[in-house]
Specification:
alpha/beta, Rossmann fold, 2 domains, about 15% strand
């Protein structure tokens, strides 16, 4: 019998084609925790694109690995995986171009007031909409502040500086590793001096509510905040208040403190917020790349080899024991 690979979301056909000769590929019927516990019980590998329950590994006696089809591993209970001898791998940096382009698109959309102008043209006509043209701004010469200058942040910096002529401020834990085109800056300075801010950092205890009421209060009244990190990096209530009172220029949000975003959320009533359902990293090209790499690492694990993108390598001896115990 072929080992079972459980997908928590659709995988591009290129990745599925790699897996099918070697594994039985199943798509989870739903991603609620009860369904995932039940349907993962016989799986050898889970390809993860949904949040797993904290106790998932207590229900998956045959599971060898969780392969994250994406970069952030916060969807996987990492400590529990390691404690149970379960390998965790991910696909870092592959969707950096897609996310960077998304951020720049939000800068342009909000800076040029395209959504508001489009709505005004449809509702109130040519002359009224055209009068808003005096409110838009060019990006050239403006300052972009990037919080988290990793794969994604570096691509944003390159597009903004080399393509649009913007000044770039950046923050990361190792400031000495910033690209040459990025000027190191403390967080408060990024919020106070930037015309456009991109949040690209991982969610950690230190970055939770990094964009809080105080830092949002430092922003220019015309400044735009774009979050492609995790929802909890922003104090959403504080951001809603700032947007409602028009103390900042706007926000582009791809992630939220509670997901999915529910009907009636106050963000839906704000014309200076552009909202998308966590798809910044999705494109035809990035989906294919991520699927292929996730499938290749899955096949390595099934063959008893280490994955290329091994997130918890300290688990390898325990993982080998776990595999041997299943064969016994």
């Amino acid at each position: 019998m072929k080992p079972i690979v459980l997908l928590t979301a659709h995988m591009d056909a290129a990745g599925v084609a790699l897996l099918q000769p070697h594994a039985e590929v199943r798509l989870a019927s739903a991603v609620d925790h009860a369904t995932l516990r039940r349907e993962a019980a016989s799986a050898a590998v889970m390809v993860v694109r949904a949040y797993l329950p904290a106790d998932i590994f207590e229900h998956t006696p045959r599971l060898l690995a969780c392969v994250r089809q994406g970069a952030g591993v916060d969807m996987i209970p990492l400590e529990a995986a390691t404690a149970h001898g379960v390998i965790v791998s991910n696909v870092p940096g592959i969707n950096a171009q897609a996310v960077a382009e998304y951020c720049v698109a939000q800068f342009l959309w909000l800076g040029r007031r395209i959504g508001r102008i489009d709505g005004m043209l449809r509702r109130e006509g040519w002359a009224t909409a055209r009068a808003l043209g005096g409110e838009v701004c060019e990006l050239r010469g403006k300052t972009v502040g990037i919080v988290g200058v990793g794969h994604i942040g570096a691509r944003i910096a390159a597009i903004c500086h080399l393509g649009l002529g913007m000044r770039v401020l950046g923050y990361r834990r190792r400031l000495d590793e910033l690209p040459a085109i990025v000027e190191a800056a403390a967080l408060d300075r990024i919020f106070a001096d930037s015309d456009f801010i991109a949040l690209c950092c991982p969610l950690t205890p230190e970055s939770r509510h990094l964009a809080d009421a105080r830092r949002i209060g430092l922003m220019k009244p015309t400044a735009v905040l774009v979050n492609v990190a995790r929802g909890a990096v922003v104090d959403q209530a504080a951001l809603v208040a700032a947007l409602r009172e028009r103390r900042i220029g706007g926000a582009g949000l791809d992630v939220f403190e509670e997901q999915p975003l529910m009907p009636g959320d106050p963000l839906f009533g704000l014309d200076n917020a552009v909202l998308t359902p966590q798809l910044a990293g999705m494109s035809v090209e990035s989906e294919r790349r991520m699927s292929v790499i996730a499938a290749e690492d899955t096949l390595r694990i099934l063959a008893g080899e280490k994955p290329v993108n091994f997130f918890n390598p300290e688990v390898w001896p325990a993982a080998q024991q776990r595999r041997a115990g299943m064969r016994a």
